[in-house]
Structures are given as C-alpha cells and as structure tokens.
Sequence to fold (584 residues):
Amino acid sequence: MSDSAVSRTKTLNFNVGVLGHVDSGKTSLARALSSTASTAAFDKNPQSRERGITLDLGFSSFTVDLPHHLQESLGQQQYDSLQFTLVDCPGHASLIRTIIGGAQIIDLMMLVVDVVKGVQTQTAECLLIGELTCPRMVVVLNKIDLLPANKRQSAIEKMTKRLHKTLEGTRFKECPVIAVAAKPGGPEAADTEEPQGVPELIELLKKQTYLPQRDPGGDLLMAVDHCFSIRGQGTVMTGTILQGSLAINDTVEIPALKVTKKIKSVQMFRKPVSGAMQGDRVGVCVTQFDPKLLERGVVCTPGSLRTLYAAVISVRKIGYFKGSLATRTKFHITVGHETVMARVTFFGLPPVVVSEPPSDSKPPPESCSLETAFTFDREYFYQDVYLTGQREVTSEPDPEQWALLEFEQPVTCPSLCLVIGSKLDTDIHANACRLAFQGRLLQGFEDKGYAETALPRLRIYKTKHKEGQVDRVTDDYTVIGRSLFKKETNLQLFVGLKVTLSTGETGVIEGGFGQSGKFKIRVQAGLLPETKQLLSSASKKKGKGGTKGGSAIEEEPKADSQPVSIHLHFKRYVFDPHKKMVQS
Fold:
C-alpha cells in the first residue's frame, strides 16, 4: 500500500451541520469546540502551529481519538482518529443553501438554541431542514451564563422539557439536549473566561458518531467554500465532496465559469493523498486559475451538471407554512447550491370520474413514487393552488402533485436533487415559517427558449364550460342557439365541437347563424318529441308579445324564460401554442 493510501485511511471525517437562529451563538460555539479540542489534540502535532497555510483554511474542524464504539464497528478499516468538520452556516439564505447543497454528507445536526429566547423562527426552520436532510441531531442550549446562578438549573430543565415537547412530532424525538456557554460574557468579552460545558459537548458528539455511508461511485460534485493561491504551487480550492470521488490528474469542471482544469495535487488532513471520496474534506490544487473568480461554488465531473432555465419537480407542502401555495406566485427556490426566484405552476393528476361506488373489499389504488411518476406521456390537470389533503380531519396525505418552476436566472444543479421553495422576503422576526414546499427535481429544461421548444410537450390542461340557450327549432334535426358566444367570437374555431342539450340530446356545432353570435346545431339522432313540444310552447309565448302596430322585432328573451339550455365542455392545454380546444 502506498504512503498516500495509508494517510488516506488514518482519519475518519464526520460532518456536523451547525444550525440555529441568527445570534444564537453558532460561530462562538464552533470556535470554542475547535480551540478546546485542538489544545488536546493538536499540541502533540508539531504542524498545528503552522496551520495558517494548511488546506482546511476557512473551515473549522477538530480531531479527537477514535471512540471505542467506532473501533468495534469498523472491523477491517483502520482509523486512528476522528475528525469533526463543522459546517457552520452564517447567513440565513446561505444556511438553507449550505444545508440543502450538503445534505448528502451532513452526518449529524447540532441545533443551537439561545437558552433565554428558546425556539425562534429560524430555529423551527432549521429543524425542518434537518428533518429533510439529516438522520441525527443534538440540541445545544447556549448562553447559560446569562441566567442568574441561583435559577440556572431550573431554567435549563424547563427549556429542555419544552424542547422535548417541540421535538415530539419529529424524527428527532428523544434527542439529547446539553447546556453550554460558548462565550461567557458575549462576543465582545475578553477571551480570559473559559467556555462552560464544551468538553462535555465533545464527549456527547463522540457518543453520537457512527460510521457514515459513503459512496465513491457516480459523478463528482464538490462544494468549494474557499479558494486561494499558493506561490509556486497554483490555486487551491478547499471544500467537501458531496458525491463521487476525485484523484490526481482528473479533469474537473467549474460550471459557473465554464472552464475545465486538471488536478495537480490533493491534500487531506494536511497530508498529500492520491484521491478522496464522498464526505471527505479536501484541498485540490489546480494551475492557471485566478482564485478571485471562485470564492464559493461547485466543481464537478465535466458535463455532469446541467444549467436549467426551468424544471418540473415533485412537490409537497411543508405543514408549518401558513400561506396558500398559488400558481403564478414567485418563490425563492433553493436547488443544488443556488437560491433563485422562480414562478411556480402547480398541476396534478386529472380528477377521477367515479363510475361505481368504491367497495370496501377493493384494495386502495397504490400511489406511485414521486420520483418515477412524472412522464410527458400523461395528461395533467392545471391547478390554481396546491391541494391539501384532509390532514387535520383524517390525517389523509396531500394528493400527488407537481410544479413547473420557471427560474428568473438559470441554475446549475445535479438531477434528482432536493428542492426547497420558501418566502425569504417575509419578515425574519415574524413568528412564521418561511419554508413553503419541498420536492425533487425530476425534469430540467436546458434550452433558453424552453417555452416554445419544450413546454408544448407538457400536457397540462384546463377544463372549460360554456352555457347558452336554444333560440328556436328550424326542423327535427336542427336548432339555433344563442348566448354561448360573443358577437365578435370566431365561430369557425368551434365548428365540429359536441354540445349537450339540457333535455339530453347531443349535437354538433355546424356554424354561425346571422351576425349576432347565434349558431346552428345539428342533432344527429333528432330532437325528442318532448323537447319539440317544450320549445314550440316557449316560442308561442314569445310570439304573443307583438302589438297591433306590429313591433315585430323579437326581444331577446331572458335567459331563464328559455326552457332548454346548451352545454359545451372542452379542455385546453395551457402550453399549446395553437390554443386548440379538445373534447374527449
């Protein structure tokens, strides 16, 4: 085994996402963890003092001895230490971006809660993101130094109880809660005071670790969080491999800049290695690349990421979002490593026509998985809003639905990635969840002119219903209708469409009659005797209105005075450029 392979397997990397409401003390906590751990772990290491130029610059991580329970579960794999990489997410939009983008590789979530303020808006949002992306969580109650010493313990117990109640309905039920003061005295205080509870937190984190599932297969996707040049070496991009693997001499693409580069060297844990895989923190060195062009972004296998102007996603509303989800509304869409505005159109399966009462013995129809159900071969029904199931009453899930997203700027992302729609322009201090829906990207449109080239394939329809009246009968097979069209309507578009009379007969529109929007209907099977009688008695009544002077001008009878109405049902495909009317 080569030296590089040996160094490749010595340290196990475990990624911890640090989330919490703004000002809950996330960054102070990450700093306290790193410095507390490094005094124990790095003093033995002569390189620790020159960490200034190492490749994990700009990212906090700390190393501890490998816990016993991991040594037992590792079997043949030889590791001697465990590195915690803290994915600290500063701003809120970037929090959503980082967590969703890095969802595949976050192994544990650390939710930081201000012990004085408790659960705030963003705390709840972080919880939701955690539920979508992460298997385990630890809650850290921070700033316990702000509680009066004589009431501290009871306040911590009270807050812990409240948090356990909040978490009851989530996948993090019974998760551990620990109290700390990461920076006693607040961010401005001198560094003389020791953090409280941090060694205990490190022990708790060690207990919560497990062997993460990592897959080296598939295309490379690496999230770059820092980029800098080293004289005589080239440009180093540091980051975390979200999927796939990389090795020296591989060619990688920086899709945002549309350039490809060859990997000259790779470092991990401050040692040169020949390659790295999903979940690893690495520094990758390339030549002839200006670091100013890429501070943060993604690097991938050439051609593996697509730049999309629009997409179809599966969609599920997030239960805590209070507003309705309406078609043609704009949402912030987080997809891959980007957050952009997009206009949303919701659609679902056509309404089922119930022809027989459902029997209890029949099994319910199986719902198909959202990832496989969407296809261009099927027809879909246009929805003005997202439809919710009877969750409150029967805990029935929402019906299966999809959404078309039309992005204001193109986005670069892998296929089947997680998508979250939110209203980030809502007031951050309003006590309301801003995450609105989540889903998976199922189909992307890479052509800028997708509205003309791709959308007509998407067969989403609206149903239309028009109602008019029979004006008079001309013979046993023909009636004249009115009030179905405006005077200026081009009746040629409707010729050949089927209509139904309220008396039960069906007919076909043959063409216009006169200039006032009236039209001729041919009833192939002939009018029923009752219908003729009804219409002739109505026209007799109508004829009695004339005076001796012969005001022969027929008044338009009122709609309700005419006994026989005409119904025209058809559907129109929303993206059909010809706006054709279709009848099944």
Observations:
- The longest helix spans residues 26-41.
- Confidence is low (pLDDT under 50) at residues 1-9, 38-58, 355-372, 546-560.
